[in-house]
Amino acid sequence: MLSVLANRTYRHLFLAQVIALVGTGLATVALGLLAYDIAGGSAGAVLGTALAIKMVAYIGVAPVVGAFADRLPRRAFLVSMDLIRAGVAICLPFVDQVWQVYVLIFVLQSASAAFTPTFQATIPDVLPEERDYTRAFSLSRLAYDMESLTSPILAAALLTVINFHWLFSGTAIGFLCSAALVVSTVLPKAAASAPREGGIYAKTTRGTRIYLKTPRLRGLLALTLASAAASSMVIVNTVVIVRGNLGLSQRDVAFTLAAFGGGSILAALTLPRILDRVADRTIMIGAAVAMTIGLGLLAVLTASFGQGAGYWHVILAGWFVLGVAYSMSVTPSGRLLKRSANADDRPALFAAQFALSHCCWLICYPLVGQLGAGAGQAAAFSAMAAIALVGTTVALWVWPQGDPDAVEHDHADLSPDHPHLREHHRAAQPHAFVIDDLHHHWPRQ
Question: How far is CA 243 from the centre of its chain?
Answer without folding.
Answer: 26
